[in-house]
Amino acid sequence: MNPNDLARWNIRKMLACVLGAMCMLSSAVVHAERLKDIASVQGVRQNQLIGYGLVVGLDGSGDQTTQTPFTVQSVISMLQNLGVNVPPGTSLQLKNVAAVVVTASLPAFAQPGQTLDVTVSSMGNAKSLRGGTLLMTPLKGADGQIYGIAQGNVLVGGVGAAASGSKAQVNHLSVGRISAGATVERAVPTTLGRGEAVYLELNDTDFSTASRVVDAINRRFGAETAAAQDGRVIRVRAPLGSDERVAFLGALESLHVTPAQMPAKVILNARTGSVVMNQAVTLDNCAVSHGNLSVVINTQPVISQPAPLSGGQTVVTQTSQIEIQKEPGQVLMLRGGTSLADVVKALNAIGATPQDLLAILQAMKAAGSLRAELEII
What we know:
Largest sheet: 6 strands, antiparallel, barrel
Oligomer: single chain
Strand order of the largest sheet: 3-4-5-10-7-6
Strand content: 35-45%
Distance between the termini: 66 Å
Mean pLDDT: 81
Number of strands: 23
Low-confidence stretches: 9-30
């Protein structure tokens, strides 16, 4: 080999090493995720709020008071609180009022005076909430305390019209939203600033991922900073000062950790026939026989006409023909695959419908050829 060829060979070798290192680094970066995407800080959570209220100002599309007596009772109670006395036994015929349930999510660290978006849902038989106004509605938490007050104009994304028995509707008319329609009145106590430690909770329980998170935190902030309590909760020592603790948690959430591979799982939706599987699903060699069975029922009317002037009546009967069609089944050999592409290719070779595939996957799991956990939703 002459010196020029040797130099070219060395250059190619160096380029191959550099490309290999770049591929390794890029793959590590692609698979690494931020800690805030796979875990959350214990105690930093949303709280659900709910309230009961009235929507007024509807254009004749409110609750039918004969079928929703609670709407009338709510209106009478509201009028009494406003100083208006309704004589006993008065029959109120309301068309522009609807009883609703108001829901909202109170974010972590929310303070009095902040605003929240609320969802307003009809709980009676109102035809539409379009153009209505929600009256002042207290929002309570699970402890029964009031954490917010909601009021405002309801925005409905749908539209509908009806006339002479015909009806046309686009989207849903009995649910609407009010942007910044609630005001926070009470803050939720938090324990984040108490104690010398904070606790991280992984979104999915996994001992390997918990161990990797602990190693990443200890490498970044020093030994014995973090310790795993189990496969989900990780105890982390944090500064005592509020400012230092917030900065520490910000740096902690920005750490990149490569989570362990999730267990092989196949999700089966029995209602829609959907089948979803993750990358870890593998398949062993197996043989599958699949055939379709269909039943066709054809019903035709048979009319019996009496003779003229016989005084008889025309009789209409029905005759049915039942035909059973069975397609011949064939035994298919499915080769084992160690990648998701191989599994999909093998399942497509069966030629089954999604509904039939549900039963086939269950049978393959029982036979031990499908290496995955089946979950039916």
